[in-house]
Design the sequence.
């Protein structure tokens, strides 16, 4: 298994470790997932997300390249802005979902999912020649040279500000700044988040990981800052209705089916992009199934792969993610459901151990501050 620059720290702190996306990652610490979940919602927690991938795209054709390989309109980005988008796969599905950081009109950072780094990289290599991008020059996979910590929770930015030279405490959602952080120059501090609890991500050179960790945790001692595992990261993101690749989206799901029409643009400025024609036709015809959120009415927890049925027991979809919401005290989930029952307030049934348990379709986010 691969490791991150922080792996030994997790082990030393007694974390329960497991394989995730090929990496040895902390799933939970001694307090458990529920306790960690509330620590982030109410205070502050730190996630090691160094397993995420970072790919640089630069040069005079950088924007044209990004526009072609992603579904959103990157032309609206200005330096300091971040955009959520996805890579269409040329077959109506999704290679990955990602973030695009605009450094300047000729330089972009693509932040991709850990499990898909090699897959995404090879996908991009297939289109680089079309735009005259040279590997190692205009297209660089920097994933192994960057460490990343996500500091999340209502007290996160107050703590991070203590180790930053730039003003970051009031960083607007989906923006970023360069700053000297923990004495490390040219560090990216961004506010994208995956928990709905506020906070930021810190991107630093991998060889400065120990310096970053030590100073961040020292700065957060008054608030009781603590490391958080991937178990709570999953329950937190699910309460917000955020997609997880490999569960809620994959190579068989289109952006429109996944409810990602808002990051799929067909305007003239956007121009041509992978799967544009297919997606325009799908939009015009209307999707026959869609990803939706649901809350259990009957007692039971839905898990990935469970069948979704109508009142007569006919299978009309499948669960992609499910858990017991720590904040709401009810079981929640996400599922692909056939039309028209993917609409809010529809009554659906989850098949659990051969029993049909009632659930109700609801709009995300499940948890509202």
Sequence:
């Amino acid at each position: 298994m691969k490791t991150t620059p922080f792996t030994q720290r997790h082990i030393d702190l007694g974390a329960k470790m497991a394989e995730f996306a090929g990496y040895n990652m902390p799933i939970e610490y001694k307090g458990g997932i529920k306790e960690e979940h509330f620590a982030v919602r109410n205070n502050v927690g730190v996630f090691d997300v160094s397993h995420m991938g970072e790919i640089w795209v630069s040069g005079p054709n950088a924007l044209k390249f990004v526009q072609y390989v992603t579904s959103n309109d990157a032309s609206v980005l200005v330096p300091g802005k971040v955009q959520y988008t996805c890579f269409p796969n040329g077959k109506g599905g999704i290679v990955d979902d990602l973030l695009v950081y605009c450094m300047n009109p000729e330089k972009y950072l693509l932040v991709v999912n850990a499990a898909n780094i090699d897959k995404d990289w090879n996908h991009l290599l297939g289109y680089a020649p079309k735009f005259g991008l040279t590997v190692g020059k205009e297209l660089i996979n920097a994933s192994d040279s960057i460490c990343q910590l996500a500091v999340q929770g209502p007290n996160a930015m107050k703590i991070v500000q203590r180790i930053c030279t730039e003003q970051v405490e009031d960083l607007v959602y989906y923006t970023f700044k360069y700053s000297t952080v923990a004495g490390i120059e040219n560090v990216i501090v961004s506010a994208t988040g995956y928990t709905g609890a506020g906070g930021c991500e810190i991107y630093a050179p991998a060889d400065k990981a120990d310096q970053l960790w030590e100073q961040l945790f020292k700065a957060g001692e008054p608030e009781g800052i603590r490391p958080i595992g991937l178990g709570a990261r999953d329950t937190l993101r699910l309460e917000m209705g955020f997609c997880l690749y490999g569960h809620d989206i994959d190579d068989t799901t289109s952006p429109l089916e996944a409810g990602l029409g808002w990051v799929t643009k067909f305007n003239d400025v956007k121009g041509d992009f992978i799967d544009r024609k297919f997606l325009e036709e799908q939009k015009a015809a209307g999707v026959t199934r869609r990803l939706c959120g649901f809350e259990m009415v009957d007692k039971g927890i839905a898990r990935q792969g469970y069948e979704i049925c109508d009142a007569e027991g006919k299978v009309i979809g499948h669960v992609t993610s499910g858990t017991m919401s720590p904040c709401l005290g009810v079981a929640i989930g996400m599922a692909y459901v056939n039309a028209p029952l993917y609409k809010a307030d529809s009554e659906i049934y989850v098949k659990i151990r051969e029993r049909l348990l009632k659930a109700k379709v609801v709009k995300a986010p499940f948890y509202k501050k």
Residues 52 and 366 are 26 Å apart (CA to CA). The chain has a mean pLDDT of 98.
